[in-house]
Amino acid sequence: MKNLYIFFSILLFSSSCSMIEESIDSLYKEGRSSEYIVKENDTLWSIAIKNNTTPQKIAIRNSLKKPYVIFPGQVLLLSNLNRVNINQTIEPEWSLPTSSSIKRDKEGKFWLIFNGDLGDSVYAVEEGKVVLSGSVLPGYGNFIMIDHGNDYLSLYAHCDELFIKKGDLVSKNQLIASIGSSETNIPKLKFQIRKDGIPINIDNIKF
C-alpha cells in the first residue's frame, strides 16, 4: 500500500511539472507590429512583454544606452528583432517576494520556501505579465506565474488569496497574493525563478 502511495505521488508530481513546462511553451505565440509608440508609465520590460520579445533586443534595435530612458510619444522600432545580435544584457534586479523578516528554507536546488503566517503579503519580484493565476496545477494550490521578459519567469505556489489575474501587468513589489496553505499542511510560499523555461539554482538568485 505504501509503495502504491509513493507511485501515485511521483506520478502526480511529474504531471504537475509537465503542466508547468506546457504553460511555459505556450508563451509568445502572438505576432507584433513593426513600431510601438511609448505610452505613459511604459518601461522596456512592459513593452517587451506586450510585444513578445526581450528588453535587450528593443534596446539594441533602437540604439538605446544605459539607463535606457524612454518617454511618452517615442517611436520604437520592433521590426527585424529576430536578427538582432545580442551583445549586451539587461538582467532583472529581483526583490523579495515576502517580508524580509520571514524565514527562508530550501527545497532541493530550485525552490525557496518562505515560512510565513496565513495572510502574509506576497509581492511580484519584478514587473511583468501574469500568465497563470488560480488553482491550475495539481499539487501547487493557488498558483501564480509571471513572465518578466527576457525569458525569465517567477512562480508562486500555495497562496491563499490571489489579487491579480491572468493577463494583468504587474509592477515590481506589487501586492499579488497572500501566503496560504492551499494543498500543503502549513502556511508557506513556495517560490521559483526560471530562465529559458529551466529552474534557476536558488543559490544563484540575488535579492
From TrEMBL:
Gene3D superfamilies: Glucose Permease (Domain IIA), LysM domain. InterPro entries: Cell_wall_metabolism_enzyme, Dup_hybrid_motif, LysM, LysM_dom_sf, M23ase_b-sheet_dom. SMART domains: LysM. GO terms for molecular function: metalloendopeptidase activity. Residues 34-78 form the LysM domain. It comes from the Bacteria. Pfam families: LysM, Peptidase_M23. PANTHER family: MUREIN HYDROLASE ACTIVATOR ENVC, PEPTIDASE-RELATED. This is LysM peptidoglycan-binding domain-containing protein. It comes from SAR86 cluster bacterium.
